[in-house]
Amino acid sequence: MTACVFCVGTGVGDGYFLMLHSIPKGTHIIHYGGTFHFDADTGLPDCPQLKILRVNGSIFFGAVEHVEDAFRRVDHDNPRQKHLLIVASGINLIDISGAELLAREARRRRAMGGGLYFYFMKDAVRDLLRKGGYLKDIGEENVFEQGTDFIASLYPRLSADVCRGCEARIFPPCATLLPSGEARSDPSER
Q: pTM for the whole thing?
Protein backbone atom coordinates (compact mmCIF):
# COMPACT_ATOMS: atom_id res chain seq x y z
CA MET A 1 0.00 0.00 0.00
CA THR A 2 2.81 2.40 0.90
CA ALA A 3 4.51 1.74 -2.45
CA CYS A 4 1.22 2.44 -4.27
CA VAL A 5 0.75 5.77 -2.47
CA PHE A 6 4.38 6.65 -3.21
CA CYS A 7 3.91 5.87 -6.93
CA VAL A 8 0.71 7.91 -7.15
CA GLY A 9 2.33 10.81 -5.29
CA THR A 10 5.39 10.69 -7.53
CA GLY A 11 3.22 10.53 -10.64
CA VAL A 12 1.15 13.51 -9.54
CA GLY A 13 4.29 15.47 -8.66
CA ASP A 14 5.92 14.66 -11.99
CA GLY A 15 2.74 15.61 -13.85
CA TYR A 16 2.53 18.91 -11.99
CA PHE A 17 6.20 19.64 -12.75
CA LEU A 18 5.68 18.93 -16.45
CA MET A 19 2.55 21.08 -16.53
CA LEU A 20 4.41 24.02 -15.00
CA HIS A 21 7.64 23.72 -16.98
CA SER A 22 6.71 22.33 -20.38
CA ILE A 23 5.69 25.68 -21.84
CA PRO A 24 8.66 28.04 -21.88
CA LYS A 25 7.65 31.66 -22.03
CA GLY A 26 8.65 33.51 -25.19
CA THR A 27 8.95 37.26 -25.32
CA HIS A 28 9.26 39.23 -28.52
CA ILE A 29 12.05 41.76 -28.46
CA ILE A 30 12.04 44.90 -30.50
CA HIS A 31 15.17 46.99 -31.02
CA TYR A 32 14.43 50.65 -31.52
CA GLY A 33 16.41 53.78 -30.97
CA GLY A 34 19.45 51.94 -29.64
CA THR A 35 17.55 50.08 -26.93
CA PHE A 36 15.80 46.74 -26.70
CA HIS A 37 12.19 46.51 -25.60
CA PHE A 38 11.25 43.16 -24.01
CA ASP A 39 7.54 43.23 -24.69
CA ALA A 40 5.31 41.47 -27.15
CA ASP A 41 3.24 44.60 -27.77
CA THR A 42 5.36 47.74 -27.83
CA GLY A 43 3.64 49.20 -30.86
CA LEU A 44 7.09 49.74 -32.37
CA PRO A 45 8.04 48.32 -35.77
CA ASP A 46 9.89 45.04 -36.08
CA CYS A 47 12.75 44.27 -38.45
CA PRO A 48 11.22 42.63 -41.52
CA GLN A 49 14.09 40.12 -41.77
CA LEU A 50 15.36 39.43 -38.24
CA LYS A 51 13.10 38.31 -35.41
CA ILE A 52 14.48 38.49 -31.89
CA LEU A 53 12.87 36.24 -29.28
CA ARG A 54 13.76 35.68 -25.65
CA VAL A 55 13.06 32.18 -24.38
CA ASN A 56 12.46 31.88 -20.64
CA GLY A 57 12.41 28.26 -19.61
CA SER A 58 13.98 24.92 -20.25
CA ILE A 59 13.90 23.29 -23.66
CA PHE A 60 13.33 19.62 -22.90
CA PHE A 61 11.15 16.80 -24.24
CA GLY A 62 8.01 18.25 -22.64
CA ALA A 63 8.58 21.72 -24.11
CA VAL A 64 9.85 20.93 -27.61
CA GLU A 65 6.42 21.12 -29.25
CA HIS A 66 5.71 24.54 -27.72
CA VAL A 67 9.09 25.95 -28.75
CA GLU A 68 8.68 24.57 -32.27
CA ASP A 69 5.23 26.19 -32.44
CA ALA A 70 6.81 29.53 -31.48
CA PHE A 71 9.32 29.14 -34.34
CA ARG A 72 6.47 28.40 -36.77
CA ARG A 73 4.51 31.44 -35.55
CA VAL A 74 7.46 33.62 -36.58
CA ASP A 75 7.18 32.13 -40.08
CA HIS A 76 3.42 32.62 -40.12
CA ASP A 77 3.45 36.18 -38.78
CA ASN A 78 6.19 37.38 -41.14
CA PRO A 79 7.56 34.90 -43.71
CA ARG A 80 10.40 37.32 -44.56
CA GLN A 81 11.86 36.94 -41.04
CA LYS A 82 14.14 34.08 -42.05
CA HIS A 83 16.73 35.10 -39.46
CA LEU A 84 15.87 34.29 -35.84
CA LEU A 85 17.94 35.40 -32.86
CA ILE A 86 17.16 33.71 -29.54
CA VAL A 87 18.12 35.64 -26.43
CA ALA A 88 19.05 32.51 -24.49
CA SER A 89 19.86 33.83 -21.02
CA GLY A 90 16.53 32.44 -19.78
CA ILE A 91 17.24 28.89 -20.97
CA ASN A 92 18.49 27.04 -17.90
CA LEU A 93 18.28 23.47 -19.09
CA ILE A 94 18.22 21.61 -22.39
CA ASP A 95 17.96 17.90 -23.07
CA ILE A 96 18.63 15.88 -26.22
CA SER A 97 15.12 16.51 -27.58
CA GLY A 98 15.65 20.24 -27.19
CA ALA A 99 19.12 20.09 -28.71
CA GLU A 100 17.79 18.15 -31.70
CA LEU A 101 15.04 20.76 -32.16
CA LEU A 102 17.56 23.62 -32.19
CA ALA A 103 19.87 21.83 -34.64
CA ARG A 104 16.90 21.03 -36.90
CA GLU A 105 15.68 24.64 -36.75
CA ALA A 106 19.17 25.92 -37.61
CA ARG A 107 19.28 23.66 -40.69
CA ARG A 108 15.73 24.66 -41.68
CA ARG A 109 16.42 28.39 -41.41
CA ARG A 110 19.64 28.04 -43.41
CA ALA A 111 17.70 26.21 -46.13
CA MET A 112 15.25 29.16 -46.16
CA GLY A 113 18.16 31.56 -46.71
CA GLY A 114 18.33 32.74 -43.10
CA GLY A 115 19.82 31.49 -39.88
CA LEU A 116 19.29 30.65 -36.22
CA TYR A 117 21.41 32.61 -33.76
CA PHE A 118 21.79 32.75 -29.98
CA TYR A 119 22.78 35.59 -27.68
CA PHE A 120 23.96 35.08 -24.09
CA MET A 121 23.69 31.29 -23.95
CA LYS A 122 24.49 29.71 -20.59
CA ASP A 123 27.60 27.52 -20.42
CA ALA A 124 25.69 24.36 -19.45
CA VAL A 125 23.42 24.68 -22.49
CA ARG A 126 26.33 25.38 -24.81
CA ASP A 127 28.32 22.46 -23.37
CA LEU A 128 25.49 20.01 -24.03
CA LEU A 129 25.09 21.31 -27.60
CA ARG A 130 28.83 21.02 -28.19
CA LYS A 131 29.25 17.56 -26.62
CA GLY A 132 26.32 16.18 -28.61
CA GLY A 133 27.57 17.64 -31.90
CA TYR A 134 24.50 19.88 -32.23
CA LEU A 135 26.59 23.05 -32.21
CA LYS A 136 28.04 21.96 -35.56
CA ASP A 137 24.57 22.32 -37.10
CA ILE A 138 23.94 25.62 -35.34
CA GLY A 139 27.43 26.99 -35.96
CA GLU A 140 29.77 28.30 -33.27
CA GLU A 141 29.82 31.62 -35.16
CA ASN A 142 26.07 31.92 -34.56
CA VAL A 143 26.35 31.95 -30.77
CA PHE A 144 27.14 35.41 -29.40
CA GLU A 145 28.51 36.05 -25.93
CA GLN A 146 26.93 38.57 -23.58
CA GLY A 147 28.14 42.07 -24.44
CA THR A 148 28.84 41.18 -28.08
CA ASP A 149 27.47 43.54 -30.72
CA PHE A 150 25.51 40.83 -32.49
CA ILE A 151 23.84 43.37 -34.76
CA ALA A 152 27.25 44.19 -36.30
CA SER A 153 27.66 40.47 -37.10
CA LEU A 154 24.10 39.80 -38.26
CA TYR A 155 23.34 42.95 -40.25
CA PRO A 156 25.61 42.01 -43.20
CA ARG A 157 23.76 38.68 -43.46
CA LEU A 158 20.45 40.41 -44.20
CA SER A 159 19.17 41.10 -47.71
CA ALA A 160 20.13 44.51 -49.05
CA ASP A 161 17.13 44.37 -51.42
CA VAL A 162 14.69 44.01 -48.53
CA CYS A 163 16.50 46.71 -46.53
CA ARG A 164 16.43 49.07 -49.47
CA GLY A 165 12.62 49.15 -49.31
CA CYS A 166 12.36 49.11 -45.51
CA GLU A 167 11.27 52.29 -43.79
CA ALA A 168 11.56 50.99 -40.22
CA ARG A 169 15.37 51.27 -40.02
CA ILE A 170 15.44 49.40 -36.72
CA PHE A 171 19.17 48.95 -36.12
CA PRO A 172 21.82 51.71 -36.02
CA PRO A 173 23.54 50.70 -39.29
CA CYS A 174 20.17 50.79 -41.10
CA ALA A 175 20.24 54.59 -41.13
CA THR A 176 23.34 54.91 -43.30
CA LEU A 177 24.28 51.57 -44.88
CA LEU A 178 22.63 48.62 -46.54
CA PRO A 179 23.80 45.16 -45.41
CA SER A 180 25.93 44.94 -48.57
CA GLY A 181 27.95 47.93 -47.34
CA GLU A 182 26.42 50.20 -49.97
CA ALA A 183 25.57 53.69 -48.68
CA ARG A 184 21.90 54.59 -48.53
CA SER A 185 20.89 57.13 -51.11
CA ASP A 186 19.38 59.43 -48.47
CA PRO A 187 20.58 58.49 -44.97
CA SER A 188 18.55 61.29 -43.40
CA GLU A 189 15.28 59.61 -44.41
CA ARG A 190 13.88 57.85 -41.45
A: 0.80
